[in-house]
Fold this sequence. Notes:
The chain is an alpha/beta fold. It is built from eleven helices and ten strands.
Amino acid sequence: xxxxxxxxxxxxxxxWLLSAASMAGAPLAQASTPQAWPQKPIQLIVPWPxxxxxxxxxxxxxxxxxxxxxQTIVVINRPGAAGTMVAPLLxxxxxxxYTIGQLPLPVLRHALMNKVPWDPLTDLSPILQVSSTTFxxxxxxxxxxxxxxxxxxxxxxxxxxxxxGSTGMGSxxxxxxxxxxxxxxxxxxxxxxxxxxxxxxxxxSGNIMAGVNSTGFxxxxxxxxxxxxxxxxxxxxxxxxAVPTMKELGFxxxxxxxxxxxxxPSGTPAAIVKTLHDxxxxxxxxxxxxxxxxxxxxxxxxxxxxxYKQTLLQIAARERQLLQxxxxxxx
Length: 331
């Protein structure tokens, strides 16, 4: 009598394979389909207080991208340290695409000015560049200064008495006025704020005499609470064509832009970065988002992931030279 495995004549090939796998002690591998990403809400860190121009435009951008991703994008405000809080938070986050952030220019600058346990060029993965910010010099409407020269003349005659606000130590507004006043050998008192809203409130109420900020100041100027003396761009603004540029006033070095984009923690899978890129690129050019940018005198300045990374490298190199000249580079 032969002892062995008896298979009914009706068994199919699948029955044989399942039986063989069971007898060998190994389960048969089942075909699986990778889960579509994302499977849960995404956190977008904005390193500015709620209510400023950048925060408001990013919220519209996030809403538009949410529709395309099929998941909510939650804006998380983490203000302070001139907009640099996003870098350490992203470095500490899992590189799974569920935590991303807005990258302002001061993040690169802060890492050059201070010894920090993170590097924006190696710890962050660029998704795309979104826009570029224009800066302006503002005073309250009650101020006797109607021209930049009025402010400079008074500040020269009253050393350190000029109380000038910016969005933080080492921020682009801070460096813009530092370079301008430094070239004129004018001493002033710098008052740093956490963000646009705080600074504009202080300026409109007369708690400070002047301020430099991005075009988040637009509503305050339009409401007649602030006066725009000049802009730090290459050419005059289409929105305020009567306002001169610092360059045309004779301050050739006072041209400042602050491009910004979105980044993820380094190590985020390329496929996830591409999914984020595609959703935000589509969101960027929706009429709703473009209209929001125009409210703050900004335009879409799209760069894809590789181009944005190359731009960040170039900006870091230029910033290093500027800070070295100003003796602000960390040893």
